[in-house]
Design a protein that fits this description.
Strand 5, helix 7 and strand 6 form a beta-alpha-beta unit. A six-stranded parallel beta sheet has the order 2-1-3-4-5-6, sandwiched between helices. The protein starts with 8 loop residues before the first strand and ends with a helix. The longest helix is centred in the last third of the chain and has 21 residues. Helix 2 crosses helix 3. By secondary structure, the protein is an alpha/beta fold. It is built from eight helices and six strands. The relative contact order is 0.17. Belongs to the thioesterase family.
Length: 248
């Protein structure tokens, strides 16, 4: 099923309002034998011309269709913030279909599912309040927050994605994740508290730990190497465990 090589196809799902660009250095910082795929949601990055999607399940289904031919051999998902939600939702959709699942799931800066949702309405904040919130989070270039023309250009995608995150609710009775799961976050994150990150243990049969780093919601932005070192080790361990169970 998995073969004997050390190759892994890793799909990376970006944060709200973002694109693959924040992660563009990751392929060269991860193992050379890996096939690292940096994804874009519709309406940004390489998919700028496509209509945006403001529903998490619909966006996960979009990726399910788009990646169908590539979800073969050993593959894994890593998602940051909104991207972690999409990686989780896509994994649940694959499980419901009874098809091949990722050998590993990496979830960053995203709290565990809450039946009642996040309880926030950031996507509906007035412009000035939303800019202040985004400045506290980090991740959004300051020129976008300060320049009216740039803000007008980027605000629709930011509001779209925040709406997607805030309107999502987990499916009642959703099964626990079956593959190894690692969770990552920043000590100074103003959006997601460590206990919310640790809550993923209640949703994973093989919770492999919470790893915390210095920094805020975008704790890896200045230097992704510490995070990616753990990602490489964690995903490789999960792949080795999968091969030990089914080496064929």
């Amino acid at each position: 099923m998995y073969g004997t090589g050390d190759g892994l196809r890793l799909f990376v799902f970006h944060h709200a309002g973002g694109s693959h660009l924040l992660y563009r250095d990751w392929p060269r910082l991860l193992p050379a034998s890996w096939d690292v795929r940096l994804l874009d949601a519709p309406g940004r990055g390489r998919l700028t011309g496509e209509p945006q999607i403001d529903d998490a399940r619909a966006l996960a289904a979009f990726f399910r269709r788009r990646l169908a031919a590539d979800l073969s051999g050993p593959f894994a998902f890593f998602g940051h913030s909104m991207g972690a939600l999409i990686a989780y939702e896509l994994t649940q959709q694959l499980a419901a279909e009874g098809v091949r699942l990722p050998v590993w799931l990496g979830l960053s800066a995203r709290g565990a599912p809450r039946p009642q949702g996040e309880g926030t309405r950031r996507h509906a904040l007035p412009d000035e309040e939303l800019r202040l919130h985004l400045a506290a989070m980090g991740g959004t270039p300051l020129e976008v927050l300060k320049d009216p023309d740039l803000w007008e250009m980027f605000a629709p995608a930011l509001r779209n994605d925040l709406k997607l995150v805030e309107n999502w609710r987990p499916q009642p009775g959703a099964p626990d994740l079956r593959m190894p799961v690692n969770v990552y976050g920043g000590h100074g994150d103003v959006v997601v508290a460590p206990e919310r990150l640790a809550g993923w243990e209640q949703h994973a049969r093989r919770f492999m730990g919470l790893r915390m780093f210095d920094g805020g919601h975008f704790y890896f932005q200045a230097d992704p190497v510490p995070l990616l070192g753990h990602v490489a080790r964690d995903a490789s361990a999960a792949l080795a465990a999968a091969r030990a169970v089914d080496p064929a």
